[in-house]
Design goal:
single chain; 8 helices
């Protein structure tokens, strides 16, 4: 996966993975014009012959419903041509903005990961299983999205592990003594 440095409007530089540029589809020219007219009509845009001819080369490149297609449609609705370079540029800016927000949540929402690890271990000692994420987020005073980003980062650092199963969240260090008995009992069933 190719990484690209994206400079955001505020000057921050964020490294994100570059999207694969889909090849230009092989569509007959008359069918391109039909699709261009349908695209303009779906956006409540005037389907003049001039706009249809200008838009026809860009039809069919992106899968409908994808982020890139939505960006291309937004450009068309703003009377701009959705060139592959422009769509990719806007997509990378969006991806970089999301990545920066994710990093900021991890860095600023909870400054002490030890607080999270202690809360997880305490819940294991009391209940014999990992805490529900919603309950853990409430006890730490953050929203679940910020907690999810933090737990993902802690998982990458191999400080916690979890699965989709409820109560699976645990610290990677040796589990509390009371928890090991519970998990052994469950495994024996």
């Amino acid at each position: 996966m190719k990484m690209v440095d994206v400079t955001l409007p505020d000057g921050d530089v964020v490294a994100v993975s570059a999207p694969a540029r889909p090849p230009k589809p092989k569509i007959r020219s008359d069918r391109r014009r039909e699709l261009a007219a349908m695209w303009l009509e779906s956006l409540s845009q005037p389907a003049t012959q001039e706009r249809i001819e200008a838009l026809a080369p860009f039809v069919g490149r992106y899968r409908k419903g994808s982020h890139m297609h939505r960006i291309a449609s937004h450009l068309v609705s703003q009377n701009q041509l959705p060139t592959a370079d422009r769509v990719e540029e806007l997509f990378l800016i969006r991806r970089a903005t999301q990545e920066r927000k994710r990093q900021q949540r991890v860095e600023t929402v909870i400054t002490d990961p030890g607080q999270v690890l202690t809360a997880i271990d305490t819940h294991w000692e009391i209940h014999g299983q990992g805490p529900p994420w919603r309950k853990l987020a409430e006890s730490l005073g953050v929203n679940t999205y910020a907690l999810e980003a933090l737990l993902l980062e802690l998982s990458r650092k191999k400080l916690v592990r979890y699965t989709r199963a409820p109560g699976s969240l645990r610290t990677v260090a040796a589990p509390p003594a009371s928890a090991s008995g519970v998990t052994e009992g469950i495994a024996d069933r």
